[in-house]
Amino acid sequence: MSNQPYRTALVTGASSGIGAAIVGRLREAGIEVHAVARDKDRLARLADETGCIPHALSVSDRDGMADLLSTLDVDILVNNAGQSRTGNITNTTPDDIDALVDVNLRAVLQLTHLVVPGMIRRDRGHIVNISSIAGHYAFAGGNTIYHATKAGVHSLSQQLRCDLYGSHVRVTEISPARVETEVFGRLIGDMEEAKRRFFDEYESLLPVDIANSVAFAVLAPQRMNVSFMEVLPTMQVVGGLNFAKKSADPA
User: Fold this and answer.
1) How confident is the model at residue 132, as a pLDDT?
2) Is this structure's pTM higher than 0.85?
3) Mean pLDDT within 111-125
4) How many domains does the chain have?
């Protein structure tokens, strides 16, 4: 561990699921971790368990995040916070569109904009964006706005590599498929039903799998940039073709 140059990380969406697992894994690696989320009580428990430094903030609060980051030299930024919704573009609401864009994309852009200049000055840093296979594939049942925001995170991750050309600042996008987290329960309003519908009969990924993926990229030798990692359950595939039948001729 003494050979890796990173000392300080900031993880968003840190109070549960993937974010909490990433916090724990980076703490195991000896990195000081600042954990950001809205749930103060869960953050306090996470701090007790891992020794992280909790910050009860919304990533959508740019001024609050700017104040926090003005006091830190962040070596690793993990953009993990995200939201989803049911439905698609035909039955969503303007508020849902704004909420998904604000958290899933605008906050990622704003936080990256806040930390990258310092990373460039120090010639040291790592941006880790947790996206989704929804940013790369179209599939029935997916929320259109969610897909669009995650596609934006993918494009950002690719372009950042160009912006940071010539520096030692690295960029990694990790794109998971189905992970067993509370988000499915929030989507349908019933975690037990979500477990029955999405997890009980499937061997899904666990948050620790994504945390280990982050650690692999972050702790890799500095000569090595893991730019993109797509992580799926062994038994899940993406793609496929849906072909609607011809409509019956009108009578």
Assistant:
1) 95
2) yes
3) 98
4) 1
